[in-house]
Amino acid sequence: MSGPTVSFVSLGCPKNLVDSEKMLGMLAESGCAIVGDGGTADVVVVNTCGFLSASRDEAIGILRDAADQKKAGEIKRLVVAGCLVQRDGQGLIAEVPEIDALVGVNNRADIVRAVVGEKPKGRIGKASKQKSPTSSDKGGDGRTIFLGEYHPSSWAKDNKSDRSRLRLTPTHYAYLRMSEGCNQKCTFCTIPSIRGPMHCKTVPEIMAEARELIEDGAVEINLIGQDTTSYGQDIGYEPGLAGLLGELNKLDGAHWIRLMYAYPSDFTDEMIDAIAANHRIAKYIDIPLQHISDQVLKAMHRRVTHKQTEQLLEKLRRKIPGVAIRTTFIAGFPGETEDDFVDLCDFVRDFGFDAMGVFPYSSEPGTPAHRMKNPLPPSEIEARVGALMAIQQEVAFARAAAMKGRTMEVLIDDFGRGGTYPARHQGQAPDVDSMVYVESGDFDPGEFVQVRVTGHSDYDLKARPVSMGLPILH
Ligand code: SF4
To answer: I need a labelling partner for 344 at 20 to 30 A (CA). Which of 250, 270, 287, 329 fits?
Structure first.
């Protein structure tokens, strides 16, 4: 059966990207033709992010454009999926009444029904009970809604496996979601209310998915979840993350296995040793710290202190030589004093992260922080974000300059333009970190190449292939 043509927009984080890839796989398997960006399609699907108000604004903008296309008769159906649907499906319909179907994060398996316009079987009752608009809402007739809360059995049956994806990443790297949901209770965060409590895949399921990605051409696997360091706690897997890394290290064909979204307070010595000892595990850690002042960390309910954070980071650098550490901070959290902020600035300047992002605090309805006193004015929040990024820029440029003359292995990420190839060393994650630009050579994406750093341009390094007869300088 040939289904409708579908244009798919994927917003948000790599976990949402994996959902998009899985939904695309199901649509393709059901006979829908997937058209590229800008192609005309019968149906537009937008997989939304609902983490912050800013992501909401981005989604609404895209949905309004698609609604205009529908009003102009250029498309027949508008389907919306993802975290924003889960967080506020009703509000979405109120803002964009042209929406034809809603698919929550726990109803991914219903994407084909939503696209072809099939009514959900016996779900309406259940759905309406759970903050979703009923089919009788004012938003227009014939709307189909697939929306339910996280439930272990329906997750295990319908949503657990991310295998048979239609991947949106380049062939040579992939994201592997080892768990979803989160048991942490950070006071600024909406994710547990959207994605539910932490729920992990088993080691055999993760290994099977990893093998499938490797067979599909991935040489780099990026491990994701909301909180990867708590891996296994909900399924009674005692060895935890350290055990999983040891298992994944046995996989031939994976060159770099990268750990992302680590949580500081649960980072054990066994995990550090597992990263240090296993050669396929990239010497890289993405560990959002959010802040460093004890007063703010407490108000954020991060369950970690300034001292503990410093001890963990010092241990990571001591026990994993050359490890690259990426982090993110929030500036402007309610009650963040000048001293708290100075504390954070000094910490960033002194520690010297390989990569760092800063989020302006966003007051999200439904979170404990939303009700906190002493909110900072937006102008002050913005100023603090700017100040922190300026400090990190100095740090990053100095670190890049210090890399000159170093020899390293890089992964070519794309075809060359003008003889220059975008690439990354193992201390650089895809899509979020800086790059290495390899000047000259003839390479294909997915190739590993030995290079020597010849300089940098802002955050990015410049390098030349060593094999091009350049002497190796250690
Ligand atoms: S660890 Fe904290 S910030 Fe991250 S998803 Fe969980 S609650 Fe949100």
So the answer is: 270
Cα angle 59-190-264, degrees, rounded to a multiple of 5:
120
Q: Which two tokens stand for residue 385?
A: 């974000």
CA of 292 to the centre of ligand 1 (A): 16
- The residue whose CA is least distant from atom 8 of ligand 1 is 189
At 455, which helix (H) or strand (E)?
A: strand 448-457
Q: Whose CA is nearest to atom 5 of ligand 1?
A: 226
- Tell me how far the alpha carbon of residue 92 lies from the centroid of ligand 1, in angstroms: 24
- Is 80 exceeded by the pLDDT of residue 280? yes
C-alpha 187 – ligand 1 centre gap (Å): 9
Three-class SS state of 413:
coil
Please tell me the distance from the alpha carbon of residue 418 to that of residue 181, in angstroms, as a whole number: 44
Atom of ligand 1 lying closest to residue 263 CA:
1
- Residue 34 pLDDT exceeds 70: yes
User: How much distance in Å is there from the Cα of 31 to the middle of ligand 1?
Assistant: 37
The closest alpha carbon to 106, from 77, 127, 133, 79, belongs to 127
- 5-131+139-156 placed in CATH 3.90.1100.10: no
Instruction: Identify the CATH number of the domain defined by range 407-465.
Output: 2.40.50.140
Q: Do 5-131+139-156 and 407-465 fold alike per CATH? A: no
Q: Which atom of ligand 1 is nearest to the CA of 290?
A: 3
**Residue 93: burial class (beta carbons within 10 Å; 0-12, 13-18, 19+):** buried
Which among 150, 182, 261, 333 is the best mutation to test ligand 1's pocket, defined by most ligand atoms within 8 Å of the CB? 182
Give the count of beta carbons closer than 10 Å to the beta carbon of residue 95.
Answer: 15
pLDDT digits (tens, 9 = 90+) for 192-239: 999 999 999 999 999 999 999 999 999 999 999 999 999 999 999 999
Written out in words, the top-level CATH class of the domain with range 157-400 is alpha beta
- Decide if pLDDT at 453 tops 50: yes
Rounded distance from Cα 190 to ligand 1 centre (Å): 8
The confidence score (pLDDT) of residue 417 equals 87
pLDDT at 319: 98
Confidence check: pLDDT of 38 > 90: no
Ligand 1 surroundings by CB, under 6 angstroms = 182, 184, 186, 189, 191-192, 226-227, 263
Q: What is the pLDDT of residue 418?
A: 87
What's the pLDDT tens digit per position in 137-179?
Answer: 545 567 999 999 999 998 988 889 999 999 999 999 999 999 9
Q: Does the structure show a pLDDT above 80 at 16?
A: yes
Partnered with residue 153 across adjacent β-strands are none
